[in-house]
Amino acid sequence: MPQPGSFLSLGEEQRLHRNSASEQSSKSTDGVYGDIPASFSGRSNRNCERMTRNDYEELENEVLKYFDKKFYFRPPLQDWKLPEPSKIFVADGWKELRLQQLKTELNNVKSKLDLYNLNDWHKHTRAMNKAGEIQWKLRNELEPEFLTQAWCKFYENAMSFILVTPVVVINECLNSVHLCEAPGAFITSLNHYLKLHNPGIKWKWLATTLNPYYEGNPLSCMINDDRFILQTLESWNFGLDDTGNLMDVKNMLHLAKEAAGMGDVLLVTADGSIDCQENPGEQESIVSSLHYCEAVSALHILAKGGSFLLKMFTMYEHETVCLMFLLCCSFTTVQVFKPATSKEGNSEVYVVCLEYRGKDFMEPWLEVLRKHFGPELPDKAMFPQTSIPQDFLDQLYDCTSMFKNLQTDVIETNIRVYERGRTRGEAHKMKKLRYLIADHFMKTYDMQKLSESDEVVGKSKLKKTMTLNMDPRAEEGSFSDRRKKSKLEPLQLLEVLKEELDSMAVKWPFSDDVKHLQFPPCVDGFKLQVGKPVKTVDSSKFCLGRLLRIRNQVREIARNYIHPSPSIESYVQTSPSLPNGISCENEVAANLNEESELSQKFRKAYPRRNLTILNYKEKLWTSLESGNEEAEINAFWDIMDAFDMMWREDNLLLQGYPMLTQFNVGIVYMLCHLFDEVEFVKPIKEDFAVQFIGFRQWNPKMRSFLEEVDSTIEKLRSEGCNQTVLSLFPINMLCERYSSSSKAEGESYEQPHKREDGSGQSKKLDDCDNTFYKCVTEVNHLCVKEQVSDIIASILEQQRHSSI
């Protein structure tokens, strides 16, 4: 029996933990290490002939160590005991000096990277990554669904530990919950594992993450790949307020209640993190509240005997020390694992918790933990330092020391090679080692291809999914450069943002200035979504994230740092819908029927039809930073009032109406089905419009739904609750409503009417395959870029004149 706190080899690990459930895995990983030299018969065989036996042995040992970065906590025979619930969060914060010394040593090494250009450094570390061949090999040989680094890391955990408990195998049923799961690779990886090793298991899953479609969530806080989420919306829970914020206790309890509806949950994963680029030395403190909420959520969701997989980083502060002690007392077995596919130079580790003692056992402590659940932990420590057993602290020190040394050794090696360059021999050895590690990964974890029919969504469908906001996040310059940029004066920052804006290629994608679309006379799939009001639009599925970020930064500079002239005032004025209760309704209404060059042209094209003009110009755009909810609702009522006055074949011009939120886009989408023809007009500067031609009269089903929207808004207001209507349709309907498959099954479209331009010829319209989404987003891109460019130009011109 290994000694307490000892390091386990994979063979020891399996003998200790797999003997009770060996039948759940199709093949054991025992005995694979001796096959390492056989890998030299692969594609680099010619160069291997030059290697000595010592070279073989050195590489073999390095491969073995690379897959054996584990630490196993060993409680005493009587188990560690939690302090009384009354002692939770009552003691002052404390520090363990030995752990603080490790933190200092690690930060001293990491600080050596501050002056390196990030792009150059990351290119170098990618070349030095010993596991860099694994994803390439998986993609080319197996083509797993939604393959990412997270996919690989979960698969390693699943194959190295008994995350899928023997009870699951016996009952042939698994319910799993995945916290902070975006973009969803843990789920597709678990599916791959189950289909290969336990194909008879009936699996249901539920996931949560910051809602990528809630416009009040900043894009910087979210993963910018929503392809999988968009295709599996029914399995995602974004909480009572639809934000997906797990650190709200109401959202957590709502998730736990929905998870209980599936039955016993025997696996919970948590892969969350927070961007710490601006203060990497305090990563642990920054993410500690998130880790607390993830762990406490798991303790509420899991059934007795279940497993919990938690991503963590360093473990030097009292917040993490106490959390680790809580987990060690809540589960029979706790281990810390650094997967081979986790980048060696970072602090990432996975805490593997097996055999949960159960909510009944933990309830006295859970009651107190719920009271301190939130985005910020209390100043007090979870447990007094005196209540943490010394043997636990000793084992934690051994654990953190092990992973700290692994990390610093890699960073120092990378720095040394970066400074002097790699020799030819080192490059050859690294190439060989990467091949060996990839081969070892494939063999050890028994990797096999999965048919697309067994996948969750399917690779083909994911590839076709709209991915607007997958714009890369630029990492220009060094860490020091970024810090200097964050301290720029407003005008200097404005110049930087102008350069970034100018570099973005935004143009009208269609050959004609007017894009014609036609929709069926009715639409199904209404789904009213209520949640926390969006006061400020920080993100949008209908606009590039970078572009919206620049817009918000520029307007903030104009509002807070620059005293605008009257010429700029229209861009930066605060929306009339402020929290003081002043309504913007009258001011907007005064401009609704305002004629413009565009409206005159539209009226001339259809002289024999009545035209209703709703011209919002800047009135709704200025509300995006504050009071957005109030302005949107007032505009909704304007539109509904206008329809009450319309007759068959009347036209509508909706001008200056921002289509950045699901609510507004849903209104436009609804209008598209109420008219014979729809035209998205190429913006001229900031003058843009959607033209609706030939009112069809109300479809009873659609009128009933909009009346429900109206009554729901009124009810929520009268109740005084902090909720409102956020959307009218599921987000995937607004992005991909009309697919080729649906038309193949007989979905029909009404034939276009002849245009009243004197030609007497009908114009064939497009069939709307994702074109609605494209029209909406492209109008937004052009308008936002033009708007921001004008603000910047006006401010810089004002400053130029004031300095003369």
UniProtKB/TrEMBL annotation:
Pfam families per the UniProt record, alphabetical: FtsJ
Ranges of residues in domain Adrift-type SAM-dependent 2'-O-MTase: 145-358
Catalytic activity: a 5'-end (N(7)-methyl 5'-triphosphoguanosine)-(2'-O-methyl-ribonucleoside)-(ribonucleotide) in mRNA + S-adenosyl-L-methionine = a 5'-end (N(7)-methyl 5'-triphosphoguanosine)-(2'-O-methyl-ribonucleoside)-(2'-O-methyl-ribonucleotide) in mRNA + S-adenosyl-L-homocysteine + H(+)
Binding sites annotated in the UniProt record for S-adenosyl-L-methionine: G184, W203, D271
Positions of region (Disordered): 1-38, 745-764
Annotated keywords: Cytoplasm, Methyltransferase, mRNA processing, Nucleus, S-adenosyl-L-methionine, Transferase
Alphabetical GO biological process terms: 7-methylguanosine mRNA capping; methylation
GO molecular function: methyltransferase cap1 activity; methyltransferase cap2 activity
Matches recorded under InterPro entries: Adrift-typ_MeTrfase (IPR025807), mRNA_Cap_2O-Ribose_MeTrfase (IPR050851), RNA_MeTrfase_FtsJ_dom (IPR002877), SAM-dependent_MTases_sf (IPR029063)
Keyword DNA repair assigned: no
Record-linked PROSITE patterns: SAM_MT_ADRIFT
Major localization class: cytoplasm
EC top class named in words: transferase
Keyword Plastid: no
Active site positions: K311 (proton acceptor)
GO cellular component, one term: nucleus
Places the protein is found: Cytoplasm; Nucleus
Sequence ranges of Polar residues compositional bias: 19-29
EC number(s) stated in the UniProt entry for this protein: 2.1.1.296
PANTHER family: CAP-SPECIFIC MRNA (NUCLEOSIDE-2'-O-)-METHYLTRANSFERASE 1-RELATED (PTHR16121), CAP-SPECIFIC MRNA (NUCLEOSIDE-2'-O-)-METHYLTRANSFERASE 2 (PTHR16121:SF2)
Name of the protein: Cap-specific mRNA (nucleoside-2'-O-)-methyltransferase 2
Lineage, top ranks: Eukaryota, Metazoa, Ecdysozoa, Arthropoda, Hexapoda
